[in-house]
Amino acid sequence: MRAIDDAGLEGLDASRTFEVRARPLAPTVLAATDGRLAWRAEGDAARYRVQLATDGRFATPLIDRGVDGLELAPQLAPGRYDWRVASVAADGHQGPWGEPHAFIVRAAPGPVSVTAYNQRLRFAWPGGGNQLYDVQLARDAGFTDLIADQRIGEAAFTVAAPASGTYYLRLRGTYPDGTTSPWSGVQTLRTFYLLPWWSLSSPAVSNP
Prior knowledge:
Elements: E1 28-33, E2 36-40, E3 47-53, E4 63-67, E5 71-72, E6 79-88, E7 101-105, E8 113-117, E9 120-124, E10 132-138, E11 146-152, E12 156-160, E13 165-174, E14 187-191, E15 198-200
Antiparallel strand pairs: 1-2, 2-5, 3-4, 3-6, 6-7, 8-9, 9-12, 10-11, 10-13, 13-14, 14-15
Protein name: Peptidase C-terminal archaeal/bacterial domain-containing protein
Organism: Zoogloea oryzae
InterPro entries: Ig-like_fold
């Protein structure tokens, strides 16, 4: 570095030696889907440090945690969040933070009401804003034996009434900006041949 006066005359050089530790490299961010934060390893990282905040400056992070794997799935309330991740070497030295990324956690749709007519069931829930909905109706709570699996553009879904038995319903919303809510809590549907021939329970798991 050297100074230059108003006449354009340059002074003597001043120099200083310094060291930059840019290793281990920051991970490459992959996704923040449904609040699940994921990244790809870069270099010789032994573990990672993750910060999550709501202000973008990380002055008072909601989460500041060491992670051994390549993802973190915190339980978050609906809202907008910023997160960043850094690599940590085996000797405990932390590399530089990666670029912060923003994401939105959406509220799951619901609650669901049901009406019956002409041997059909119509499920409905509060909605709006040009959302799309994924609706699944299954014979098991793990949703591996599906009766219906549809993406629809309205906050209602109609299906032929299934045979007497117990069934499970869940749904999620996709918004115009591309963000997707988590699945709603699972609701249990019991159908009967005798009147009243159907009932719908509250979600077994509350909406996040």
